[in-house]
Amino acid sequence: MRERDIENYLRDQVKKIKGRAYKFESPGNAGVPDRLVILPGGRVYFIELKAPGKKSRPLQVTQQRKIASLGCTVLEIDSFERVDEFIAKVSEPK
After folding, report:
1. Is the pTM of this model over 0.90?
2. Residue partners of 92: CB distance under 8 A and separation at least 6
3. What is the rounded distance in angstroms from the CA atom of residue 52 to the CA atom of residue 74?
């Protein structure tokens, strides 16, 4: 399974729950997460997608920590199952 497959699956699952999974690119800021997921109610998540078993590179980890230090949620997802877990968690009634 490729990272692209997981990314497409995430995008499709987020759309099903009425959210958006924008491709996140920030010129001059290499290593930012792949997707910016915005859900109803103003919930925002930065998602780094990986092929199964792969981990973030040091530059990506640095960017993830910077974003997290601002109070944002940053997640790394490397499988369809992890996408499903994320969707289940964010879909839970509050």
Report:
1. yes
2. none
3. 18
